[in-house]
């Protein structure tokens, strides 16, 4: 019996929830069996110093500019509010994994319009792949980055497939670029994908120059508009230059 549109949507949503539940369960089991990654432990230890008043000094001198600040700021805020940094860090990691799986589903669905189960198959594959389980169960920073990357990819797919400029998707891509850099310094691959898409599209046959140019400019200004306030706040509260000079002078 063929399902109507409403029944099909409910069935798909139910299967996706089961896949997400399976994904979270596998990662909890992995986290209970193996110790957290060294980077995760460092993030927790530095954040716990926030309650003692030394968070910014420790963060500036030891981690910036090599360790992007987003996870530090989140965990440091939890410490200041009196929360258990390790527990809430694990919760954040699992929540990020849920969002990541959902993003994978959206990408699969967007790429294969003619095959409705593609999104669910992609989500199930990522949910049960050992490497993703390993990362999802013990590396806090990478889980945040995976969320950003997969939604940047989703926005990029929609921009590439559309015949007109997708303003909201271009803005989403630009914001993802900035947040990606706040999660991982290796996030240069996100804007690199946008640039590669623009170059290939312009040289491909039937390329829509106006769409590519407008989408790229919107993404660029969205990235810039998100990055400038963040840079101003971070430079105001933890001047990297002063911290590095102090660190170097203390070692000479």
What does this structure look like?
By secondary structure, the protein is mostly helical. The protein has one domain (20-251). It is built from twelve helices and no strands. It has helices at 5-33, 38-48, 55-63, 70-80, 85-111, 118-128, 130-138, 140-161, 167-183, 189-203, 209-237, 240-251. The protein is flat, with a radius of gyration of 21 Å. The mean pLDDT is 80.
Structural class: mainly alpha
Largest sheet: none
Helix content: over 70%
Q: How many domain units? A: 1
Strand share of the residues? under 5%
Distance between the termini: 78 Å
Number of helices: 12
- What is the CA-based Rg, rounded? 21 Å
Q: Helix and strand string, N-terminal first?
A: HHHHHHHHHHHH
Average pLDDT, all residues: 80
Give the beta-strand count.
Answer: 0
Tell me, briefly, the overall form. Answer: flat
Summary tags:
80% helix; flat; 252 residues; mainly alpha; single chain
Which helices and strands appear, and what pairs or packs with what?
Blueprint: H1 5-33, H2 38-48, H3 55-63, H4 70-80, H5 85-111, H6 118-128, H7 130-138, H8 140-161, H9 167-183, H10 189-203, H11 209-237, H12 240-251
Helix pairs in contact: 1-5, 1-6, 1-7, 2-4, 5-6, 5-8, 8-9, 8-10, 9-11, 10-11
Summarize the structure.
The protein has 252 residues and is mainly α. The chain has helices at 5-33, 38-48, 55-63, 70-80, 85-111, 118-128, 130-138, 140-161, 167-183, 189-203, 209-237, 240-251. It has one domain (20-251).
């Amino acid at each position: 019996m063929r399902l109507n549109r409403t029944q099909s949507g409910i069935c798909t949503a139910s299967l996706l929830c089961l896949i997400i539940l399976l994904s979270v369960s596998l990662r909890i089991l992995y986290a209970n069996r193996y110790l957290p990654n060294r980077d995760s432990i460092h993030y927790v230890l530095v954040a716990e110093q926030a309650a003692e008043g030394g968070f910014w000094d420790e963060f500036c001198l030891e981690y910036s500019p090599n360790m992007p600040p987003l996870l530090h700021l989140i965990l440091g805020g939890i410490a200041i509010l009196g929360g258990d940094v390790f527990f809430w860090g694990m919760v954040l990691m699992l929540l990020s994994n849920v969002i990541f799986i959902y993003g994978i589903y959206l990408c699969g669905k967007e790429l294969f319009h003619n095959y409705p189960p593609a999104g669910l198959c992609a989500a199930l594959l990522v949910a049960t792949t050992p490497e993703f389980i390993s990362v999802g169960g013990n590396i806090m920073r990478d889980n945040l980055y995976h969320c950003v990357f997969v939604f940047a990819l989703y926005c990029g797919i929609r921009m590439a497939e559309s015949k007109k400029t997708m303003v909201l998707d271009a803005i989403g891509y630009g914001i993802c670029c900035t947040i990606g850099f706040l999660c991982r310094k290796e996030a240069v691959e996100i804007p690199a994908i946008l640039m590669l898409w623009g170059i290939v599209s312009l040289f491909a046959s039937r390329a829509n120059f106006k769409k590519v140019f407008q989408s790229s400019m919107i993404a660029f200004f969205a990235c810039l508009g998100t990055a400038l306030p963040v840079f101003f706040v971070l430079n105001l509260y933890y001047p990297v230059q002063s911290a590095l000079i102090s660190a170097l002078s203390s070692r000479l």
